[in-house]
Design a protein that fits this description.
Layout: E1 23-24, E2 28-32, H1 35-45, E3 55-60, E4 64-66, E5 69-71, H2 83-100, E6 108-113, E7 116-120, E8 123-124, E9 127-134, H3 137-144, E10 149-150, E11 153-154, E12 164-170, E13 173-174, H4 194-199, H5 210-232, E14 235-248, E15 254-259, E16 268-272, H6 273-277, H7 286-296, H8 301-304, H9 309-318, H10 323-341, H11 351-361
Antiparallel strand pairs: 1-2, 2-3, 3-7, 4-5, 6-7, 8-14, 9-12, 9-13, 9-14, 10-11, 14-15, 14-16
């Protein structure tokens, strides 16, 4: 079997029983179950949610997105072998630790397959909750050009590239395009301040202004838990993005939870500790792939300049990357996943067939 066959690139065409359109994002696809199937599974599997809670099957893919584009390789490789399983395994590991340490629950109720989550419906907080422990990436680029104010936080003079910040910073941005919020441009992924959030908390889907402090607490606690665990593996947790949302508990009360993914190579920068102490940054995250793309193409401004999006999309569409590049990315993802979880990431020979079989035989969700 070829490497291309082991990649799950298309994940929105599974025969899962649903009466709603399949929502397909850059990496995951979501299948909303019927009310009947949701209630049946809640009872059969004894999920700790109210009986009328809507459930969904969330299937990850091996697609790789960078600079808001999907990239493919030669030989029909439409993704990175092992990437999806590695991302889910890492998130599963951190979500479990969060719950064990009394931080907060996640949206995940069940894990039928390494590529699959059964999740409860959540109302997302419309914030990309970003935490930074080192100055690098976009923050460094802005700082090096003289910018000192980030999301209402003033940075001191004299910081150097890739150095540790004086304190852990929360630099939130918008999740999606939010209309009608004073002082917040209606564009995706724009930096916001705590004052923006406080004055417009309901526009960001917070239930109360008090929940802003809870989200900040959960963000800091989650970051520190992952950072401490990675430090024991001699890995540096540089920065990350969390997402939060509300679900109903069994009694019908709202509770704030972690959702999407946490502490993964897609949502975080992770550096090798030994190399960093020696003055060299070695990425164990998707940032390494981003840097490779910037060096691979002769005009990197296409990848960084949002005004050149049409050129960027053409670049991704018309250039198949060498197989060796995608396999190097595969090794990065699987190696860090195995280091974090202590478990081997096994490549499925036919992940789609495996998923269908399990969902049919064990969950009765395929006709």
């Amino acid at each position: 079997m070829s490497l291309a066959d082991q990649v799950l690139a298309v994940n929105n065409d599974l025969p899962i029983r649903t009466d709603a359109p399949v929502h397909s994002g850059k990496v995951r696809s979501v299948y909303w179950l019927t009310a009947k199937d949701s209630a049946r599974l809640i009872q059969e599997k004894n999920y700790d949610v109210a009986l009328d809670t809507p459930l969904a099957i969330m299937v990850i893919s091996d697609r790789i997105s960078a600079f808001d584009c999907i990239w493919q390789g030669e030989g029909g490789m439409k993704g990175v072998p092992g990437k999806g399983a590695a991302l889910n395994a890492i998130s599963n590991h951190w979500f479990k630790l969060f719950k064990e340490q009394g931080l907060a629950d996640s949206h995940i109720l069940d894990i039928p397959h390494p590529f699959v989550w059964i999740v409860q419906k959540a109302k997302p907080v419309m914030i990309e909750a970003i935490c930074r422990q080192y100055i690098t990436g976009s923050m460094w680029r802005a700082y090096s050009k003289g910018e000192r104010d980030f999301c209402g936080i003033s940075l001191p003079e004299g910081l150097t590239k890739d150095s540790k910040l004086p304190e852990l910073l929360q630099t939130p941005s918008t999740k999606g395009i939010l209309e009608g919020i004073p002082g917040v441009p209606a564009v995706d992924d724009v930096n916001i301040t705590r004052q923006n959030i406080e004055e417009n908390f309901s526009s960001f889907n917070f239930k109360s202004v008090q929940d802003i402090a809870l989200y900040e607490k959960l963000l800091t606690q989650g970051f520190n838990l992952i950072s401490d665990a990675l430090a024991k593996l001699d890995q540096v947790f540089v920065d990350t993005k969390f997402e939060f949302g509300y679900v109903k508990d069994k009694a019908g009360n709202d509770k704030l939870i972690y959702m999407d993914e946490v502490g993964t190579p897609d949502s975080s920068r992770i550096w090798d500790g030994e190399q960093y102490r020696n003055g060299k940054v070695v990425e164990n995250s998707k940032e390494g792939f981003r840097q490779l793309l910037l060096n691979h193409f002769p005009d990197p401004d296409i990848l960084l300049n949002k005004d050149r999006m049409a050129e960027r999309e053409a670049l991704a569409r018309d250039n198949k990357l060498p197989e060796s590049v995608l396999m190097a990315v595969s090794n990065t993802y699987t190696a860090i996943a195995e280091k974090i979880t202590g478990q081997k990431i096994v490549l499925s020979e036919n992940p789609k067939a495996e998923i269908i079989k399990i969902l049919k035989e064990q969950y009765q969700l395929v006709d």
